[in-house]
User: Which sequence fits this backbone?
C-alpha cells in the first residue's frame, strides 16, 4: 500500500477524478440525446409517437381534443395478443 501523500496515491486520486468526470460527461450527453426529438433528428415532421406509452398517447390525445372509439384500442390489443399467441 502506498503512503498517504505518495505519488501513487496522487495518481490514484487523479484517475478516480477523471473517471468521475467522464461518467458525468456521459450522463450529460445521454440526457441531451434524450431531449432531442427523434422527429427533428430524422427530418420527420411527426413526433415519435411509437416511443410513447399508451398512457402518454391517451393524455396527448385528450390534450389535443382527439377522440377515438375504445373498440379500436381493444381491437388493436386483441390483434397484438393473438400475434403473441402464435409465437408461443
Assistant:
Amino acid at each position: 500500500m502506498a503512503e498517504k501523500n505518495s505519488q501513487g496515491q496522487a495518481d490514484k486520486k487523479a484517475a478516480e477524478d477523471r473517471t468521475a468526470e467522464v461518467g458525468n460527461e456521459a450522463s450529460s450527453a445521454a440526457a441531451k440525446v434524450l431531449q432531442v426529438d427523434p422527429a427533428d433528428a430524422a427530418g420527420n415532421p411527426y413526433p415519435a409517437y411509437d416511443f410513447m406509452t399508451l398512457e402518454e398517447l391517451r393524455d396527448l390525445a385528450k390534450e389535443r381534443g382527439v377522440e377515438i372509439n375504445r373498440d379500436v384500442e381493444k381491437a388493436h390489443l386483441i390483434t397484438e395478443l393473438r400475434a403473441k399467441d402464435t409465437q408461443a
